[in-house]
Hints:
two-stranded antiparallel ribbon, Ribonucleotide Reductase Protein R1, domain 1, 17 helices, 58% helix, mainly alpha
Amino acid sequence: xxxxxxxxxxxxxxxxxxxxxxxxxxxxxxxxxxxxxxxxxxxxxxxxxxxxxxxxxxxxxxxxxxxxxxxxxxxxxxxxxxxxxxxxxxxxxxxxxxxxxxxxxxxxxxxxxxxxxxxxxxxxxxxxxxxxxxxxxxxxxxxxxxxxxxxxxxxxxxxxxxxxxxxxxxxxxxxxxxxxxxxxxxxxxxxxxxxxxxxxxxxxxxxxxxxxxxxxxxxxxxxxxxxxxxxxxxxxxxxxxxxxxxxxxxxxxxxxxxxxxxxxxxxxxxxxxxxxxxxxxxxxxxxxxxxxxxxxxxxxxxxxxxxxxxxxxxxxxxxxxxxxxxxxxxxxxxxxxxxxxxxxxxxxxxxxxxxxxxxxxxxxxxxxxxxxxxxxxxxxxxxxxxxxxxxxxxxxxxxxxxxxxxxxxxxxxxxxxxxxxxxxxxxxxxxxxxxxxxxxxxxxxxxxxxxxxxxxxxxxxxxxxxxxxxxxxxxxx
Length: 477
């Protein structure tokens, strides 16, 4: 079979897409015949051509929406509010989405007005049309399976979407924890490798006291692991949901039995220990859990960026700077300067961290912008948190694989800096007092000699008090 020419392929692309006409409360809308979404999604695609990023790019949210819709279908069936065959078809459609199918049908922009209504209706329409197919009916035949009356029964966007939003962030926590653990473990491995290398510790960019390179790396690991503990504490807040509260938390439009059962059913469907919020009205507008989680992401970004600053500084030079660690060569550093290699991996992680810090400000403003019984800015909050999580995950994975694991120590350079510094005078203080140790440090500086050499010449009896003289150093790699 002959392949079509570029001209023929171009003409094929220009052919009009076959459409079907569907109806919603606003009238008729044209929908591509080969798609599963319906008229409200089609309107939202036109209305919100904003970021170019689609809900499909947040698979955790799509999966969580399917959990909510499946749990609702089962609960409505058990309460006698949904026929068995329709409930079964809805559940089967949801199972396909949970398994990863049909995600490309979630086409609404992540930034949208309406407090997430377009995202919720995107899910309702896709599930309804797939359920119709499973029942042997055509898409758009909503008198049999209706997006609102059946898929969205006993729900409002304000509890269905809001619940899915929380569970989507909860899912991201596992990937985030894994990435933090990986980078911390890599630093811990280096701590073991560098444990016997003595070096200068510095404060305010000035020589301070001796330490080991292993201690420096271990501190990097520890500060990141602290944030996993904080994450575990915060995750429980994301499991408090307002499902069953419908529009403003009062449960208007839902059956009392449904309100009693829905969260228990959601826990069974999702496998997550979700619980009902103590006050669904408060939970419908409160963005406090998101604000706290975003703050944690900012805290992690601040720490990670500080570590990358240190890696760039410690590897600076390599001749005219500190040059105490050697980062893997990833690419040529200049189009002009031969042999120059830049710390590109820490640099890109720094940039990710700055973006995450800025996103926290966005979440702060959006969380504050709630009015009365709802916060209409939740789509922005969710998008900002999702993007920050994914950026941090990929940045930490990159830092681990492309920088930390290949990092080496320049033991000889560490020793030179330590011996040349007056920082070792700190170790003399317990033996001869601060004033005499300070006088010796000043004497070494005046003589322009390393402290060790000065002591060897002027005070050889004090050399035994220096740990440097006792600790063997690793040879440089």
